[in-house]
Prior knowledge:
Helix content is 29%, strand content 23%. By secondary structure, the protein is of the alpha+beta class.
Amino acid sequence: MNPTPEQLKQILADADHPLGVKELLRLAGLHPGHQTWLKRILRELVRQGGIIKEGKRFLLEPVPGGRSSDGEAEPSRRKGRKGPIPTRPESVQLEGILHVHRDGYGFVHPLSGDGENVFLPPAEAARALDNDRVVVEVGGRPGRLEGHLVRVVQRRRELVVGTYRELGGRHAVVEPSDSSMQGPIRVPNTQMARDGDLVKVRLGVGSRMLGPGEGLFGEVAGSLGRPGDPSVEVLSIAYGQGFSDEFPPEVMDEADRVGPAVSEDEGRGEERRDLRTMPLITIDGEDARDFDDAVYAEPYGTGWRLVVAIADVTHYVREGQPLDVEALRRATSVYLPDRVLPMLPERLSNGICSLRPEEDRLCMVADMVFDARAQLRSSELYPGVMRSVARCTYNEVQDVLDGKDVPHRNALRPLFERLLAVSRALRAMRKERGAIDFDLPEHKVVMGEDGLPERMEKRERKESHRLIEECMLAANEAVAKFFQDEGLPTVYRFHGEPDEQKLTAFAALAQAYGFKMRFEDGISSKELDAFISQLEGHPEQRALNQLLLRSMMQAVYSASRVGHYGLAAEHYLHFTSPIRRYPDLLVHRLLKAHWVRKGKKRSQAALEREEAQLEDMAVQSSERERAAMQVEREVVSFYATLMMQDRVGEEFDATVSGLTEFGCFVELDTEHVEGLVKTESLGFGGKLDKTLHALVFPDGRRVRVGQKCRVRLASVSPERRQMDFEPLEIEGRPVSRSERPMRPGRAGWRPTPRFEEAEPAFGVVERGAAARRGRGQDISQEAPQAEERRRRFVREGQREEVAPSKADRKRWAAHGSTERDAESRRPSPRAEAPEQVEGTPRRRFVVRPQVREEPEARDERPETSWRPEPHPIPEGDPLAAFMADAPPLAPPPVDRLRALAARSGRKPGERLQAEPPGRRLEHSKPESRDLRPTHKDVPGGKKTSRAAPAGKRKNAHGGGKPPKSGGKFKPGRRKR
């Protein structure tokens, strides 16, 4: 009878040391075959907290504050091989953020920031997602803490996208599209999706979780559609990063309760100033719908007055309510070529919060005064109510500034010119201060009426764009200065100095291209901007600017760190886009809270507590910002590959934009898309030289960033968001076939045959004769041309004509074929196509012309494909039919036998004898250690000195003479 858990605990309590599984089996009277059952019971008891596992041994959970019978504290009775083992205190639960490694295991970082990280094995980490907020039960010992996942407190991603698979009955699984997730998600069978659909899964939260190793559970929240549909793929990318095109019901209910217009009471409340008589205007893109900023400028003494009004979103999004919780979870809006995934429902973002023309709207105002040199002299922040006089676009404003006649905007020309003058003064001030302006070109995807991408356009950065940028930068900096002067906690936009090591590496790269960048104790932003200015007009400008940008620190949100290196600003934050960025909304809320307190000071403890809360929100906002950037980049790459998939085989002019160990990236000059040219297609032996910052080849060629090239589109994979190109020319020099990857052959080095696989999705790209036939080309003469090429190779000596044997002629006669027909069917000795296996991707074999290079001293021994004739096969044997179809093989030429006999020193026909086992071959190289046999290698052998010459050794195995005929040699066993 198996022992109960209580009996196992009693056994552990009676023991004076921790027990292993085998000891427990013996003490419980169990058969060794019960070991698996016992381990499962012990694992469950450890999880419940009844016992403790230390390494591979178990002991009873100690009673906190346990006392002996005499009232003294009971000492630890646990002993190990290296002395007493300290008793672990009672089980502790810890809350923290889980970070999952790509290998499956994870670590839980405590929320407090103090203490040791807790290790989670793969079976435990698979039950949660990266960046989830979890509670774990801590075990192990200090320095090697290990945890058991108790529950998930908060998911960073509530919805996951994957492929729905039915298992039959009530069970189904979803295979996640995110490769970082471990295993499938178990879901109940549903009628909402078909097998193979891309679906949304809402993951379970809390303690109702599956056991270790059983993964995640959830329920299907809806079907996105079938894989391969572009709109479905775009949504899959967005959901994969935690963004959604839908809002929870409670969020929509709260948004529906917001009125469609500003009431009179709202306009007079909160000490708002009435700005409805001020001619404020909005300037946005052609397709913008959420207008969250309006501007106005007028002369003020010798300087300027600039008014920036921002939509008052906090009036409708109350702290802690469903709208606010969802906005914090998203933290940002995502702008895609064909849609927007907003942070707030459209009823707010495109409705009551949007500064529409000729409609009253609540706003937060930054009223600033600058002198003639654009230095901020005074600023005032206050809530207000406004009415925009016009909704302008960047193109309209630019046309007016260029002097063109725009009938419905000519009346605003004086305002446009004043805004232009203010923006130019502000830009000159920031330039003098040392702000960095990379001025990198941006590209946008132009969608067609059918919802598919048509082209990629370069987005121009016009003066009208710079005008709005400078106004927003000035407002953000003025608000940051207010918080800094008042000593109030807030969320800043922090950009640190670049890492010295990365900057040193970039300086070496720039010097390789002829640009010097000197710095000793760091480099100021002003010096860096001066370096960027000297790149203007050079072909390497864009590539070096991008590489420099990658070597810079990434700007993040922070409640404790202040300063912006790129803008050369002492303090900076985001204030001007609360509709699409949560940190901006947070700054508005903090301003209002300060006005409500009317300047009353708070305790230091309260300030520190609020700063800690703001830091958590800042970290989350930074993470969601990076996720949104990842979605935008991936969607643009997907649309770019979708746009180019019908242009496989076309040639383009391009520029080398980046280098890696496996090739170089090129950007097409007209299409503005980027793809990869693999090192193998550039030539043999190419390697990335990090000192020269170039791909270097044995023949002296170098591929560097900024070089012009001509490429052919070889393959496109929208599923992987990748494009591969083949090089045709680099800097005007053709990339010949001889520069392709080579392998040794009979007559020197020749190009390596390529196996090219058809793309599995988004259409199969045909190549070779099939592609030419599909384009309507005549391929009827290709077979005769191939036969003529074969004959020419034979005449030139690149292919050896093999004389058929008698067996070949008999086999041909049996099949009723001629010698010429059989010879034409014979596989080429140079290369053979691999056999096609049913169910595998179709492979195409490409053989390029042989490059014949005569070696200095070539061995003239003829080659052959001869092999001995097989033994006769009885009639009726199943093997006979198989062998009848085998390709014929020629007998060995007589010249080869003569050559072999001449080399061996024997007469033709004389039987070759094997070399004695102990003799060294003449052409073999001496080993670093003596491997000659000893007396231990032969049974009964006598001990001899290793220094004795090989010809005088007495034992049979190592003697210099071959064994006598008829004698047998029995080798002994060598000891290992």
